[in-house]
């Protein structure tokens, strides 16, 4: 009896060792050959017994599983029970962490198609609304999105020219967009999921994640920037704790663009996001928001490529003034500071923005900046570029601006009257001359006595300037004649008389 018991003891120990070694192998990383072998066996068993096979941790790490069983990612969500769908969801996410070179469509074609189909299955599963995003699932989604999306863009070889804002450059499309689009869709659905635990999600969508997401705005693919715009707006709206960090990070990107590189592809999309963000600012405005306007938005008028994002920039500026009209004078001062001197197309954009700002400007703020403002407008009225001159004249058709001018006519009319007179006499474009005459009629109807006084003053200054110019010419000629005489006298004193030789003198005699 004792011998029988002793014979059985080694057999039990050997069986225990074998089972332990098997568990240890399943916990460690194995070769993909073993994984695929297990997959084939498991699929056969699953088809017969309708059970779910366990896969190696090489397909999905056990640390991300958080104790749940990993499921063969090749299976469909319809083929597993409800309790196993969460594990299948995580396994499929990990399978999609493999990134392929999409520039060569013939390379790994089968694997690429399988990955794309898996991504589509994940999006469909999330769209069904039955998934519950546990912490392992949220972590797996963030990991998969980071692996596929966060990448370094190739250097830009396009040359920046002075006319960059008018160049019709063809956009560059990413060859991997067929996969990236689905990844972006999945990330957006995760963020907008109704039952998402924000406390858990913010730990994985942290500041580092948001920074890498903001870096993607420099993509040259407009489709990717459009997706990023929607995703960042959703993050800003849902994760209130991240809002100050997002505003600060976007400000840093703008600083780098304005003062260092002057090259970035996503400024327009970022400004489009902030247009809606600014409209939601509470009153009174925080000092941080005012600084964003003065230090970030106003300097964005400086780059040569402002035409690419000027529409969105104007909208943001107008939203700020709509919140607080006292900011109008600061905006106009910024426009005058960065006013273009040699770029007529940029000047046209500035005049259009200036008109929108003046429509929302109160009388008190207008009076702070009306002198330097109409000195600049006077130059625009007198511009030799007919489009700039026309656009400056058309500002006077705005009722609000005309009302501001009327109530401050004693200051404004003397600033612009000389430009109007010079246009009437000397401007080459007949349309500009006609607009000038219309404005002079409006001013005469506004205050005829003031117009006559400006006319007399202009004539006096013109005659005085003519007399002064004649006197300057006379003095200049006198100085030139005196200088010429002094040069002649010096030349005469320096004349050298040649000395004859004795032989020459004897011959002469």
Automatic annotation (TrEMBL):
Gene Ontology biological-process entries: signal transduction
GO cellular component, one term: cytoplasm
Biased composition (Basic residues): 1-13
Keyword rRNA-binding found: no
MF GO annotations: protein phosphatase regulator activity
Alphabetized UniProt keyword annotations: Cytoplasm
PANTHER family (alphabetical): SERINE/THREONINE PROTEIN PHOSPHATASE 2A PP2A REGULATORY SUBUNIT B (PTHR10257), SERINE_THREONINE PROTEIN PHOSPHATASE 2A 57 KDA REGULATORY SUBUNIT B' KAPPA ISOFORM (PTHR10257:SF31)
Function: The B regulatory subunit might modulate substrate selectivity and catalytic activity, and also might direct the localization of the catalytic enzyme to a particular subcellular compartment.
Protein family: Belongs to the phosphatase 2A regulatory subunit B56 family.
Name listed for the protein in its UniProt record: Serine/threonine protein phosphatase 2A regulatory subunit
Protein species of origin: Lupinus angustifolius
């Amino acid at each position: 009896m004792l011998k029988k018991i002793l014979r059985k003891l080694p057999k039990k120990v050997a069986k225990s060792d074998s089972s332990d070694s098997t568990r240890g192998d399943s916990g460690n990383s194995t070769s993909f050959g073993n994984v695929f072998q297990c997959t084939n066996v498991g699929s056969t068993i699953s088809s017969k017994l309708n059970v779910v096979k366990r896969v190696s941790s090489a397909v999905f790490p056990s640390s991300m599983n958080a104790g749940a069983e990993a499921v063969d990612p090749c299976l469909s969500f319809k083929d597993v029970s409800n309790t196993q769908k969460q594990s299948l969801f995580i396994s499929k996410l990990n399978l999609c962490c493999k990134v392929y070179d999409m520039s060569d469509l013939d390379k790994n074609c089968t694997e690429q198609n399988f990955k794309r189909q898996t991504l589509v299955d994940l999006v469909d599963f999330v769209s069904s609304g039955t998934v519950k995003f546990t912490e392992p699932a949220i972590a797996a989604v963030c990991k998969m999105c980071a692996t596929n999306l966060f990448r370094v863009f190739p250097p830009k070889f396009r040359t920046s020219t002075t006319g960059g804002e008018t160049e019709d450059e063809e956009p560059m499309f990413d060859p991997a967009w067929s996969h990236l689009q689905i990844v972006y869709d999945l990330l957006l659905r995760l963020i907008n999921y109704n039952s998402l635990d924000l406390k858990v999600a913010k730990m994985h969508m942290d500041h580092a994640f948001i920074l890498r997401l903001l870096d993607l705005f420099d993509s040259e693919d407009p489709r990717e920037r459009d997706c990023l715009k929607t995703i960042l707006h959703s993050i800003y709206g849902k994760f209130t704790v991240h809002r100050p960090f997002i505003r600060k990070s976007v400000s840093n990107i703008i600083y780098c663009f304005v003062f260092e590189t002057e090259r970035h592809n996503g400024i327009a999309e970022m400004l489009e996001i902030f247009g809606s963000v600014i409209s939601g600012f509470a009153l009174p405005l925080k000092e941080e928001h005012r600084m964003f306007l003065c230090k970030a938005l106003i300097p964005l008028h400086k780059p040569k490529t402002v035409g690419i994002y000027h529409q969105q920039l104007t909208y943001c500026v107008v939203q700020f003034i709509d919140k607080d009209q006292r900011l109008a004078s600061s905006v106009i001062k910024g426009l005058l500071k960065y006013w273009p001197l040699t770029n007529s197309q940029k000047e046209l954009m500035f005049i259009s923005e200036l008109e929108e700002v003046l429509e929302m400007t109160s009388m008190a703020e207008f009076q702070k900046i009306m002198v330097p403002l109409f000195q600049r407008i006077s130059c625009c009225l007198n511009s030799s570029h007919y489009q700039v001159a026309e656009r400056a004249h058309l500002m006077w058709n705005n009722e609000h601006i005309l009302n501001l001018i009327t109530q401050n006519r004693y200051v404004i009319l003397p600033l612009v009257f000389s430009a109007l007179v010079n246009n009437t006499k000397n401007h080459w474009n007949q349309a500009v001359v006609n607009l000038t005459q219309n404005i002079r009629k409006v001013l005469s109807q506004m205050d005829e006595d003031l117009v006559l006084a400006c006319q007399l003053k202009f004539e006096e200054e013109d005659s005085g300037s003519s007399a002064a110019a004649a006197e300057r010419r006379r003095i200049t000629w006198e100085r030139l004649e005196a200088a010429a005489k002094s040069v002649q006298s010096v030349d005469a004193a320096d004349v050298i008389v040649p000395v004859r030789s004795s032989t020459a003198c004897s011959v002469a005699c």
